[in-house]
Predict the structure of Bifunctional NAD(P)H-hydrate repair enzyme.
Amino acid sequence: MISAFTGQQIRNAEQPLLDSGEGAVLMQRAAYGLAQEVVREVRKRRKLTGASVTVLAGKGNNGGDGLFAASMLARRGMRTTAVLAADAAHPEGLAAFEAAGGRVLHLESGDPEELAVVAAGSDVVIDALLGTGARGGLRGAAAELVACLQELGPACVVACDVPSGVDANSGEVHWPVLEADVTVTFGGIKAGLLADPGEGCAGRVVLVDIGIEHLLAAPELRRLTAKDAALLLPRPTRRSQKYSRGVLGVVAGSERYVGAAELCVHAAAVSGVGMVRYQGPEAAARQVLARTPESLWESDEPGRVQAWLIGPGVDGNEQQDRARKAFRSALDAGLPVVVDAGALSLLPERCPANWILTPHAGELATLLGSLHAAGEVAVTREDVESRPLHFVRLAAQQTGVTVLLKGASTLVASPSGVVFSQSEGTPWMATAGSGDVLAGVLGSLMAQSAEALTDDDGAYAALGLAVEDRWAAVAAVAATVHGRAGTAASRVFDGGPLTASAIMGAVPHVLGSLSAECDSRKR
Ligand SMILES: NC(=O)C1=CN([C@@H]2O[C@H](COP(=O)(O)OP(=O)(O)OC[C@H]3O[C@@H](n4cnc5c(N)ncnc54)[C@H](OP(=O)(O)O)[C@@H]3O)[C@@H](O)[C@H]2O)[C@@H](O)CC1
Ligand SMILES: Nc1ncnc2c1ncn2[C@@H]1O[C@H](COP(=O)(O)OP(=O)(O)O)[C@@H](O)[C@H]1O
Ligand SMILES: [K+]
């Protein structure tokens, strides 16, 4: 499991070491890790000796890390320049940098555009303007410098701890931000590096241990690795039969949106469910059966199921009635439900804790509006896109159920406050029907997983997941499977575009390779 923390959590963990006078040691470890990563980036491009590095240094400890790192690089034969963004700089860091022969330029007495040209001409730019102590974004000349530099397109940017302007706690972004190729972060990954839009500015994230890791509290954000997902994936045994594997009831599609039904039923079928019972109008059912002859069409009274998927392509009175009826039957039987797309507006007053909502940003804004979650102020799609972590948490708290918010990073919030972030996909997945495939995969995993979720000594317990957060973990597994399938499918086309069907086609391969990973670890 990858864990991420708020800036405050990192500071709390550092405090005992700062109190015992070890602050300088922590900074040296951070600076050394940062310098190592810069060396790695330079070596990918050229010889170290004579390569040039510019550090943009703010007045706090983040600037201190940058200046110490640059002094280490100067001692290894690199040409180093520091642009000091404020009237003050970290005194020891600056002294070390000057002693190592670095050149110092001052933003206060210089021209931001000219300094941006200097920085853009170097092999690597280190962004050490703001770290966890930032309040808001860059202002004045520093903002101008960064905006010009971003436009010039520097060869390689290494961010110190977080890209300046990215909120370390939430991933909220205060523009302008210099988009990093690599972010070297210290002591613990900052939550803002695993949540959009911050994640989109961070590039590759490298964690440098500085000796505080054992002092960290429960993470703010979690990300399942391939190994975690492999452990949690349901698998058949010799005693399995189709009913024991899990049966999924699906209310999806409509006369107007036939494809949504086809996609989600087929996605469920290829992700290991024992059987799918489909409910919908005849026109959609014909297509569903043509694509997935393994499924059953039950026009009104469905047989027994272990979970429901309700909503993709649901439109019009007739299908909305089926959705409401399925909600009631799930409520009566205490069954888990994935609520997607057209069914999000049909939710009953209270939803039980084993339901999962799967909105995209626009649908989440509408849902929050209907709950009056932000008081009388309307929440827009743009609001959700700029603060997804905040709004997905709010929605989970307000509804009392798990909420999966789709995006480049998909966030899954449990009502307890635990949040997962998965980001294995490719932007090519922003294509019609992609969400229907995710809904099918999730419905299938829910139908298969129900029994394992309460085990005291099963895979969920082994990962330290409380019973109340296990539905969120199932949703995170679905998101990682979906993202990996998209990336694998795009790779077949040398990184080219995708259709939802292509994503779906790769799902069995992803499940197979994750299972193989689990087997190889057991051997
Ligand atoms: N603690 C440790 O032992 C370790 C910490 N480490 C490192 O320290 C970093 C945190 O350092 P930090 O707390 O000094 O804050 P930092 O992010 O450098 O910036 C705050 C400074 O900038 C200013 N400022 C604030 N907002 C601003 C704005 N919008 N625009 C302009 N200026 C603004 C603010 O000044 P003020 O405005 O309050 O006068 C303040 O001086 C952390 O990210 C990591 O890199 C590592 O070395 C490991 C050991
Ligand atoms: N830029 C992106 N990078 C990676 N995945 C994305 C991106 N944009 C969207 N996705 C994924 O594609 C899917 C889109 O779902 P959705 O918006 O419901 O589409 P549809 O309704 O057409 O099926 C989601 O799973 C989302 O996480
Ligand atoms: K920074």
Q: What stands out?
A: The domain at 227-522 is CATH 3.40.1190.20 (UDP-N-acetylmuramoyl-L-alanine:D-glutamate ligase). The chain has two domains: 2-222, 227-522. The CA atoms of residues 106 and 358 lie 50 Å apart.
